[in-house]
């Protein structure tokens, strides 16, 4: 609770009216962060419970069953939504909501992948590609803001001006070297032993 992490290391699946416990797949084992504003209400739910007790349980302390409108009874999930003043949705919609909030909070795709227990980041991108497209727009806006605050071209020019000039060669250094090489070639009886283009014999670019 101090680190605000939920450890996902067990599963509970309803099969033919019975809840079967098991182990999640390797990539589904994960640590899911939750925001600070949930720490206090979760701590209150933990009060008086044993380590193996269910945090969210039915009135008998057992697993909450999949929401159903059978037997003309209002399912527990719809009752919770009404009490919270929320529109009708499913438990799985809450998972998508968490992913949307994570992306809008600038979480990278690997972080969202680990949070949701996806096997790969590609699966996360395929599922929430529209959300990440919106995130790219936000990146562009941040780049624009950064570019307006600092002119990169001027910064590079200033850096060049501030470089020490002691290491610079004289402007006519390459010309002197070229003339010396030409004299050497003439003594060797070859006007162009390296096969250089004619324009490179007269002057080399610094």
- The assembly state of the depicted protein chains is single chain
Shape: elongated
| N to C succession of SSEs | EEEEHHHHHHHHH
SS-based structural class?
mainly alpha
| Main beta-sheet annotation | 2 strands, antiparallel
User: What is the percent of helical residues?
Assistant: 40-55%
End-to-end separation: 65 Å
Mean pLDDT: 75
Radius of gyration: 34 Å
Report strand %.
Answer: 5-15%
Strand tally, please?
A: 4
Unreliable runs? 197-206
What is the spatial order of strands in the main beta sheet? 1-4
Count of separate DSSP helical elements: 9
Keywords:
mainly alpha; two-stranded antiparallel ribbon; 9 helices; 48% helix; elongated; disordered C terminus
Detailed description of the structure:
The protein is mainly α and 206 residues long. Among the domains are: 1-66, no CATH class; 89-152. The chain is 48% helix and 9% strand. It contains nine helices and four strands. It has helices at 39-46, 76-84, 91-104, 109-116, 121-127, 129-149, 152-162, 173-187, 198-202; strands at residues 5-8, 11-15, 18-22, 30-33. Strand 2 (11-15) and strand 3 form a beta hairpin. The longest helix is centred in the C-terminal third of the chain and has 21 residues, at 129-149. The two termini are 65 Å apart. Residues 197-206 have low confidence and may be disordered.
């Amino acid at each position: 609770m101090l680190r605000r992490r939920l450890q996902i290391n067990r599963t509970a699946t309803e099969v033919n009216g019975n809840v079967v416990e098991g182990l999640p797949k390797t990539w589904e084992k994960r640590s899911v962060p939750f925001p600070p504003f949930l720490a206090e209400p979760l701590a209150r739910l933990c009060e008086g419970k044993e380590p193996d007790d269910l945090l969210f349980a039915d009135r008998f302390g057992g697993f909450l069953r999949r929401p159903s409108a059978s037997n003309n009874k209002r399912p527990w999930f719809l009752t919770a939504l009404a009490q919270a003043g929320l529109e009708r949705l499913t438990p799985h919609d809450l998972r998508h909501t968490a992913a949307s909030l994570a992306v809008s909070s600038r979480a990278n795709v690997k972080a969202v992948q680990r949070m949701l227990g996806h096997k790969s980041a590609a699966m996360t991108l395929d599922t929430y590609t529209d959300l990440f497209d919106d995130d790219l727009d936000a990146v562009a806006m941040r780049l624009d803001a950064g570019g307006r605050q600092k002119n990169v071209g001027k910064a590079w020019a200033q850096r060049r001006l501030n470089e020490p000039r002691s290491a610079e060669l004289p402007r006519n250094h390459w010309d002197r070297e070229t003339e010396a090489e030409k004299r050497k070639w003439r003594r060797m009886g070859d006007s162009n032993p390296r096969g250089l283009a004619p324009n490179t014999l007269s002057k080399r670019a610094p």
